């Protein structure tokens, strides 16, 4: 993830829609709550990183299906423009358009549509560059199906979105949810947005919603939508004065028929941007740790190395990645729900005041007053990072430890004495110590950047402890994963049905389902794919029940990187469970059990005698222990080792 | 599931064609693809490479052409669907007004920005004020004031009872005299006249008292609320409220003396009670408390009239949690009419009147509201059923007949909820309708009463009722046909069902720890211990296990 820099952390909250009464899933198990579905779908958003998009950081579930999303946030947005009553300059309009389109194009490549594009969701960072916010809402709610509120804002809705209707629970006449929107709907919204910038005022502001929507729909009969809009808002002169290319851009965006409207990608390569596009370099995805290409291939050092140290302001924390800062904020006592309550976004009524009067036998309740606190308030609240004040004391050396020095594993800092005492504290306390975690995370981050060269040091430090935030990658390093795992995983056939499918299908809904990630539909899909990939790629081994439990920790740690989960599992099994998954694994297991019973006899003869006396041989109880490396019973215990 | 139906209509198959040269051969790869494409493109690509043994030098070409094909076709699909929708509008298949109204409604009903402004509600403002005060030093004063009001009401009630008793005695003696004279100077007709006169006199007296009580409670409630509001204002005005807190603190001691003057007249009846801590769930366990209690159901509502210290604490506890998110609920089994004229309903209403409810409407008013809501619900249901007549409901005919006969009655398994601030340990009462079926031995887990329990637990979940009291045998008093095997069978059923519902609840609310009290009526001690032995066999009772970490 990118460093925090001048961004802030923001949080907003919404409710997933409640499940209908008394409905079971097709497999007879209870339905997955919508909030868990959203949580599962959210995870991929953490990997969508682009300079024009606000980085998503975390999601958490609250009481009564509440969800709180944490993302990169900026205070100023495009909605500040029309408020001040001034029109944006031509250059500004083109710049905004180009940057928004860059963001949209990147999203589309990941199969996502914004749908909620509006002036207050286009944020501006300190340099005046565009950052799109809430771009993942439409994706994580499964095109709006898992929430009660419509996604998007009335003035910005594209005509086809309006025409496809809104799905509403109390409305029984609509049997099916509206179809998902394509990427071109965002282009219309962008057109409205740009028009507002040019006109210097809000569009269709003081009209009732239904009138607004009708107006948008009637635009279909007009020849020149831009002129009609301008006349309607009394700013024809301002629009007429616009240069040719801006006017053309507006006309292209505000094309009524979707088939004639360009997609973001097409529009981005349109000649109207000829003067602008040269200012931007296309975004290159940073190379991941495990890939076939050289990680330093595009590294360009300045002529004079000392240039690097020039902009050396003292705020080292803002150079850390956003998710690290958020993790530390949580450790330092940050509480999302409290922050939102303080700002008045979460308001709750006493439950006794909202009790229903009467409930039918099938669970439908009547006489319940609609609680206003369940309505959507999509204001984003800036999280104050003041809790992190106490770790600002860390010196530059703490943030940039020298790895070549084999002597001291812990960097010198103001409070190094304190830290060296922390090392001796129990793990559970160390994992909650903000400063200690900061230093460990930095250390591991740097070691991993130097992987595999610094493999030995990773081993050495992992013996002390592993910070939970980087556990997935550190485990991969410990297992010695190398090479282009993504390509290997992709070339494995995970779709063709195989005989083991049925067993996997039965096991997955029973494996660690109390966990939010693993019980989400996305989690099930990933689980199935990783397991199938392993079974297909190891023809000499078979799927024994228990393999699912073994896979769970790896999937949990690398939820967004199936390839890495698969690679870790493939490396783990020959190392620790060699030949355990043979079709006939009886003698391997027997060997383990014999060693185990001898160990009992050595360490606790009395117990061993007693067990022998009552004939309680290890075969009766210990097979799943070894087969799953104890993961079945103590999943989270394993994760903290 | 509704969505799937919508999507299923729009899937279509398209053929992806890719041509390449391998040596001297021109090869053509044709792949039928389902749209919209669900799977990952790179996976599909990997599979194609593997399946058709495609040479690696065209790997990149295949990938780009595959992804651009999918992208192009997906956009075409979107465009087609979008234009179809627009076309439906122009041809008039879809009414534009209906459409925009639906949109407006969904915005108005779900988003704060477009929602109608909230009308200020006295209840909620009072709730906030009270919640703040009860968690301040003023709580003691509040409680004492409440207690004083309670004492004056109970004095009134005892006066009423006395007067009624006197009247009855006088009437009895009069009647005796009349009966004595029967046949001599008086005829049957005269006796009847006297009897009806007596009845009338009794009615008049009862009505007089009823209206007086109502008036007094009304005045009390008004005074109390005014006082609470003004106290709150005073507290806010002088933030360094040392003076007020002094004032508050002086008052109670005098009041306490009054309250304690006639205390400890009679000992409480010993309750039989046993508590368990249990774990639910196979992998991640949630902890809950269960309690088996032998008591009368109204014991949870009654205030001990001459309160000992324990009663006051209980009262404080109830007051503190009234507007919190840990409420206490009680399941009361009632018949199919929403009123308080007979049986347990009448007894409950008597208890509820013993003390003024300073927060919620009187029980009658609440029941009237329930009656209204019930009629509305029936109307809603029947109009829905007319729309979708094909929905099969088990025993639907039977039930709908029943409803048609009298729509204001409720059916077994349905329940209404009343809210109280004046009961000793309960905030919300779930009035669950049961029929005579529950007295017979053979009810199953699909019985309406059990389903009603499930819905009650669900409401507990959504409205933060963390303690709920359930009649274990689904009856409030014992009768002859309830033999020991009957009791054991019934207890087992309810235990098992409640266990199932609690596990289900854990998936709704993430396993918040709860207390469930199982209430049994007046059964023998031996029977009670049999039941308390049964509980740990059904629920997994936690045993202490100390784990030490080596780290």
TrEMBL record, chain A:
It comes from the Eukaryota. GO terms for cellular component: nucleus. Residues 465-641 form the Rab-GAP TBC domain. GO terms for molecular function: ATP binding; protein kinase activity. Residues 1-273 form the Protein kinase domain. Gene3D superfamilies: putative rabgap domain of human tbc1 domain family member 14 like domains, Transferase(Phosphotransferase) domain 1, Ypt/Rab-GAP domain of gyp1p, domain 3. PROSITE patterns: PROTEIN_KINASE_DOM (PS50011), TBC_RABGAP (PS50086). This is TBC domain-containing protein kinase-like protein. The lineage of its organism: Eukaryota, Metazoa, Chordata, Craniata, Vertebrata.
Automatic annotation (TrEMBL), chain B:
It holds the Pfam family Fy-3. It comes from the Eukaryota. Residues 384-404 have a biased composition (Basic and acidic residues). Transmembrane segments: none annotated. One of its GO terms (biological process) is regulation of mast cell degranulation. One of its GO terms (cellular component) is cytoplasm. InterPro entries: Fy-3. Residues 384-405 are annotated as: Disordered. This is CL004 protein.
